[in-house]
């Protein structure tokens, strides 16, 4: 689904870039709330929900989500004869770490893919952020919240809602691309033709997206439901038996080993490295849905050379290294590390600004009281 330079004309690409920048700015403000939580595992937060986790761990978790999405996007899976698909990740990021933080996760992934790996055009970066990041996240999380409200308040319902939200988010992304093509497409292929082809193949890709997203969210739910943003409010507070009666446990009563998400973070990092460094060698080599539609329908005739085509990591390989599997694996590991570092750095800064704002507010309240 990575849109290259040349599919959409420069004026529309520029407008999409402005819209994407605005969406990122809004997400930075929203992510301060999502990343600034200090609710202890098993305790009740300020919003009355249970199952929060220490705010100091939210930035590394969000950085890991970005790195995991980078890794899984390297795993193209076959969906039809001669066509493959890969995870977009908007639904996964939104449900795990929140919709605003989710947009930032996808934006970090797309930026690094475009600059380091020549995947997705640089003038089309705004288009890609809108189509793959904003649309998927907004559509998926909106549908997810509606389904969670309607379905029974159980963990299984979260997994079902996750599956359906991820499934719908992919064709929604394809429709969004088609709308941009209708406004600024550089070829004369009828919009109806593009819409039918894009929607059809991306419904199939959406099934793969839904399976991957539901399995991932379901696994985290089974191990640490308090780490799933979309599941907050579904976990009961920790109870302790005192004199034969169950009472709510204070945050200090929760063992540190149970509260720390470090084992989950470490496991997620190892899985990401294995996927990108080893499993990616066995991914489908067929073109993805957009590439196939572009080639079949002729909307790729104006595609431009990538500005980062000479990057030593272009096309997910190491320049000068002849062994394709080793080259691709090392590039994947570098990509995971770079995404983890960049994502965690961004989210730490965002969270720090939230803490500084809170401290300033508290200082203002104290001065008023004085």
TrEMBL record:
It is a multi-pass membrane protein. This is Cobalt ABC transporter permease. Residues 263-352 form the PDGLE domain. Keywords: Cell membrane, Membrane, Transmembrane, Transmembrane helix, Transport. It comes from the Bacteria. One of its GO terms (biological process) is transition metal ion transport. One of its GO terms (cellular component) is plasma membrane. Gene3D superfamilies: 1.10.1760.20. It comes from Streptomyces pacificus. It is found in: Cell membrane. InterPro entries: CbiM/NikMN (IPR002751), PDGLE_dom (IPR025937). It holds the Pfam family PDGLE.
